[in-house]
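Regression report. Comparing outputs from two consecutive submissions.

Submission 1:
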Amino acid sequence: MTKDATQMKELFLTLVTPMVNHPEEVRINPVEQGNTIVIEVHVAPSDMGKVIGRRGSRAQAMRKIMRAYANQLHRRVVVDIVD
């Protein structure tokens, strides 16, 4: 895992952990595919709604933050919230 992927993982962990009831079940797996980093997020089923938000508003906000950070690193990021 590169430095960029590690930094993105830690940033996303900082965003997600305070909003869930079971922070010990949060798993973030960054996968690098060329210039793109895919961040796979796994949370407890009971916390899924909290992470996604009403009509996906929280998920979209977190994706925007991650895209802004990735732009600074001249990389592309995709956030995938997995069941």
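Submission 2:
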Amino acid sequence: MKNKLSRREFLGKCSAYTAGMTALSTFSMAGFTKKTKTFSRRKNLGKTRIKVVLAHPSSKEPCWPNIGYDFEANKAEFMKNLNKYCPDIEFHPVTARKDDDAVKILQSDPTVDGYIVYLSGCLWGNVPETIAGAGKPTVMVDNLFAGSGEFLTSYAKVRREGFPVAAVSSSDFKDVAEAVCALDTIKMLKDSTVLVVGGKPDKNIEEFFGTKMIGVAFPEINEAYNAADKATAQKWADQWMNAAAKIIEPSQADIVKSAILYVAMTDLMKKYDAQAIAVNCLGGFYGGHMPAYPCLGFMQLNNDGHVGACEADQRSTITMLLMRYLVGRPGFISDPVIDTAKNQIIYAHCVAPTKVFGPEGPSNPFHIRSHSEDRKGACDRSLMPLGEMTTTIEFDVGRKQVIFHQGKTVENVDLDLACRNKLAVEVQGDVYKLLNYWDQWGWHRVTFYGDFKRQVYQIAQLLRFEIIEEA
């Protein structure tokens, strides 16, 4: 499964803005000057179908931006950019010139996954409200200095009425692509499968997102362990040992056992066509139900674009999978510790990714250690990059809320206390306020490298989740 990724980045392999582009659009391409790798979605995840409603008045009368404006050229460029930067989405463009058009659009294809309403100009009717009022995730986009008046009033109205709508009012087309990525993320979650080993699947997640949650008992993973290809496992063990900056406590036998469990997990994921696996690792290993910890396997899964999650924590698992699709980066589950004297939160756990910027990003050094609490088995201590902004969140389907805070990485704490990974972050906000929500949300949080506040807010709006800024 190595390098077969479960997400496709919208902001793919891009080139700088070229002089040949039309000047009719107010969008710049500034966000696409840095080349990045394009990932293809997994074949078993159905293609997202989005209806693009291109709304504008006649240009024969006085209007914004001006009489005689070429709306057709503007719409054509908008669609060209959508198809270029969101190549794996199926777009169905249709023009709306009056309120009745919106009703007909909804009736013509009720099976689409979401809508984009592009206000190329101001109709001053109810087209945006009618489309958003259908209740499907909708992104409303302004053509600056052309659709702005109706964009502002319509978006404010549908948001106040509680419909699942996000807005983009930006001269940078990157922001449009990011919002469309949120629509695609919702669809990909619907088509995904999560394995829950040694735990009871959360049917609330399945009901809300449509994600298939499948329970796997310990005997089944042990059966997969016994059947795993030992030569393949040895290769993984050798790769981890050769890549590690240090191997401290574990024996080679411990690491090989972890590699066999990794192969067993990937075999199960192939069997069930799953994109994520969550394992009751402490209960499984402490109770003698599993021969090894899954920590090194989780490191590899998260590095390669899948999701491996600790302690059968399904809320954290769906958060990691959502953000994997949305921003293309792995999450780091932790049991945080707060140090008010330093204005820090320290994210502690016995597994972390070593490719925090995604599968195509650089690898950071790591050590192979024993699991901290019982000093057995093998895990990784990832020496994660410092001076970087992080976004820490949990999506809770029961609460219909997202808990959220941010901070800048300052230290990989080296103390022989608690979990092996201890990433210290200087809190952005009030560290004392950060003490207030743990009884309601539990101890775990999931941290992602990058400033993803806008993306989290957009998808929260499309899911109709409230944001709780805990710092």
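Expected: both submissions complete independently.
Actual: both completed, but the second showed a warning that disappeared on reload.
Relevant detail on submission 2: The chain has two domains: 30-189, 192-469.
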